[in-house]
Design brief:
Length: about 625
């Protein structure tokens, strides 16, 4: 057999370099690169291997392991999971910094290959620096923390294990249903150990998306239900984008006269002004979509996990016989007692369409959807209009950014009050223009995620909208964006702290406490943070502005800037768009000495009762 002698680390790198993907007609490397922060446990092994592979698998240096994995995850999302990145860390703290990001990828069903360094498989020098030492189990290391947040986890304790582990990793990373983070925990001595690998193991391999057709019985039942439905509604989730089914969805919805509502991950499936688009659904939904959801006699949910923000905690979309779930993952398709329809979104929509032929839902239902959508559009115009307040609302800020955005631009966000406002109000030009991480809603995703989006989409601007709280939690990749010449436009909405949690606290009867700076006990003074000076210190162009008119002018300067530009403005911490929306289940204390909590509890109990009667 033709073999090649490589260390385990060299074999990993060579194997990853050989994986290919077809994207937009071109064949490209499946792995666009490897993010790395070196330390002991990866610098000598994987670090050496990556250095040799700089041309085929570029290495990017970041400042924080969680952030670099966020960038990798965002990159995969922005390519509709057709391309991905790897991330390597040292052992111990470096590795564990990446666990939260693993969960982000796990929840959002996004591929990322995590390669944390691990302690010595041979254990001769134990305990090594940064080894946690389990008292009762010699096989446990810090990296076991990745198990519950990995779709596939393996610890590489002998080089030849890679012959099984790497193909399995690729199967998971490229499988539309299983897709998620893969962790290969690389014992540091093994990274440096050589073995005679079969040369054929490293042959180039092209990964094409699998388009699974639905089971004929499930398809026939769905067709029958759709034919009988008088008030059908489609809920488009992220799976529509990942399956590249947006064009098919547009044609299907128009031909069969089905209105389309969008989840956070599915927003942009149809352009905002497509005649069938009724906007966002759920807790942060448009009044149009939510009214239609309440009245629909059939909901066809496509490529969505149907989390509580989408179902209105099951009070808006309760499930049961009214619900068909088209999903490539059986795990999702059977949720909420739905009629499952397991299959690729594009292929199955095509098959549904062929079977439905000229069938269309009653015109009156479509007319109603269109007039509700038009009314909602007028609401959006009103709440996002400029205004001249010194502390504008989030809605006014996003309105200004939206008006300045071209169809080639992307908006990126994840946490705080902004995702709800964006979901309700942002007018997405089409697929890919709206990038929200709202599966884990992880503070600290925005800037690093924006960088990943930028690496996937070299054209157009990437607008990162971020709250002051999330900015302070994880901003270090501003410096990376400058170093790599990957420009972002970051808008920091400084409302003096954790605005949305402060509002939630009071909505559940709580006293304003420990969220906004003004409500923090034991503080000596206001923090007086100069975000623009901070961003400048990281290499960005930055300025602070007051109000929407100044913001608009600053956005023009930011677009003209040749590097990452940060615009900071003070915003109103109390205002949130009241229009639209639906109830969200947040448990309120059953007993309390506070009258406001007791009142909130009474309201909560009524809402729980109403949920029992929901359709
Ligand atoms: C890592 C992480 N920690 C905590 C939370 C809970 N959380 C959600 S939003 C939020 C406050 C965010 O503050 P900011 O970014 O300023 O946005 P604002 O709420 O003011 O709009 C917190 C603490 C979270 N989503 N992620
Ligand atoms: Mg804030």
């Amino acid at each position: 057999m033709n073999t090649i002698r490589l260390t385990a680390a060299q074999a990993v790198v060579r194997y990853l370099s050989a994986q290919r993907t077809a994207s937009a007609g071109a064949e490209l490397p499946l792995f666009a690169g490897c993010w790395a922060i070196f330390g002991h446990g990866n610098v000598a092994g994987l670090g050496e291997a990556l250095w040799h592979a700089r041309e085929t698998l570029p290495t990017f240096r970041a400042h924080n392991e969680q952030a670099m994995a966020h960038a990798a995850i965002a990159f995969a999302k922005a390519t509709n999971r057709r391309r991905m990145m790897a991330c390597t860390t040292s052992i111990g703290p470096g590795a564990l910094n990446m666990v939260t990001a693993a969960a982000v990828a796990h929840v959002n069903r996004l591929p990322v290959l995590l390669l944390p360094g691990d302690t010595f498989a041979g254990r001769l020098p134990d305990p090594v620096l940064q080894q946690v030492e389990d008292f009762g189990d010699g096989t446990v290391t810090a990296n076991d923390c990745f198990r519950p947040v990995s779709r596939f986890f393996d610890r590489i304790a002998r080089p030849e294990q890679l012959l099984a582990a790497l193909p399995r990793a690729l199967q998971v990373l490229t499988d539309p249903a299983d897709c998620g983070p893969v962790t290969l925990s690389l014992s540091q001595d093994v990274q440096a150990e050589a073995w005679d690998f079969p040369a054929a193991f490293f042959a180039p391999r092209l990964h094409a998306p699998r388009r699974q057709a639905a089971d004929p019985g499930e398809l026939a039942r769905a067709v029958d239900r759709l034919r009988r439905a008088e008030r059908p509604l489609i809920v488009a989730g992220g799976g529509v984008l990942y399956a590249e089914a947006t064009g098919t969805l547009a044609a299907f919805a128009s031909r069969h006269r089905v209105p389309v509502a969008e989840t956070q991950a599915g927003k942009g499936s149809l352009p905002w002004d497509h005649p069938q688009n009724v906007g966002a659904i759920g807790v942060t939904g448009s009044a149009a979509a939510n009214e239609l959801a309440r009245d629909a006699d059939l909901v066809l949910a496509i490529g969505t996990r149907l989390q509580d923000f989408t179902t209105g905690s099951r009070a808006l979309i309760a499930g049961g016989p009214r619900l068909i779930q088209l999903n490539v993952a059986a795990f999702d398709a059977g949720k909420h007692g739905a009629e499952p329809l397991v299959g690729d979104a594009r292929r199955t929509l095509e098959d549904l369409g062929a079977a439905l032929a000229d069938h269309a839902a009653p015109a009156a239902w479509q007319d109603r959807a269109r007039s509700l959508a038009a009314a909602w559009s007028a609401t959006v115009d009103r709440v996002t209009a400029a205004g001249n307040a010194d502390r504008p609302t989030d809605a006014q800020v996003l309105g200004a950014v939206n008006r300045k955005a071209t169809p080639a631009d992307v908006v990126v966000c994840a946490s705080g009050g902004l995702p709800g406002e964006l979901h309700k109000l942002w007018r997405a030009a089409g697929p890919g223009a709206y990038h929200l991480e709202y599966g884990f809603s992880c503070m600290g995703y925005e800037i690093a995620g924006g960088l990943g989006v930028r690496m996937a989409r070299p054209d157009g601007e990437v607008f990162v909208l971020v709250g002051d709280g999330s900015y302070l939690m994880l901003n270090s990749e501003i410096a990376t964006s400058v170093t790599l010449g990957r420009k972002l436009i970051v808008v920091v909405l400084d409302n003096g702290g954790f605005g949305c949690i402060n509002r939630l606290q009071q909505a559940t009867g709580g006293a304003p406490f420990n969220n906004l700076f003004e409500h923090v006990d034991h503080r000596v003074g206001e923090p007086g943070i100069d975000f623009a000076a901070h961003a400048r210190s990281l290499g960005a162009a930055a300025e602070t502005v007051t109000g929407i008119a100044e913001l608009e002018a600053a956005l023009d300067r930011a677009r003209a800037a040749d590097r990452t530009a940060v615009v900071v403005l003070a915003t109103d911490p109390l205002a949130a768009t009241a229009e639209g929306g639906a109830w969200w289940d947040v448990a309120v204390p059953e007993v309390s000495e506070r009258a406001a909590v007791r009142r909130a509890r009474a309201d909560y109990q009524q809402a729980l009762e109403r949920r029992k009667e929901s359709p």
